[in-house]
Design a protein that fits this description.
This protein is mainly alpha-helical. It has one domain. Helices cover about 85% and strands about 0% of the residues. The longest helix is centred in the C-terminal third of the chain and has 34 residues. The chain is elongated. The relative contact order is 0.14.
């Protein structure tokens, strides 16, 4: 599965946090971290698109 470098960094950080705080296996931590990071990336992109659309709307 391809993750952008930013999303991958976010997933690694989340996985490390999950391993420190929760009592789960590394495999579970990584899969959960990937899901969280992908959701974060989608929300990030959606926000950027929304802001661009809003600025275009103001120009028109």
């Amino acid at each position: 599965m391809y993750l952008s470098p930013t999303t991958r960094e976010k997933a690694v950080a989340i996985a490390q946090e999950l391993l420190k705080t929760n009592n789960i296996s590394p495999r579970e931590a990584v899969s959960k971290a990937i899901l969280i990071a992908k959701n974060w990336a989608v929300k990030n992109v959606n926000r950027r698109v929304w802001k661009k659309l809003k600025s275009i709307e103001e120009i028109i």
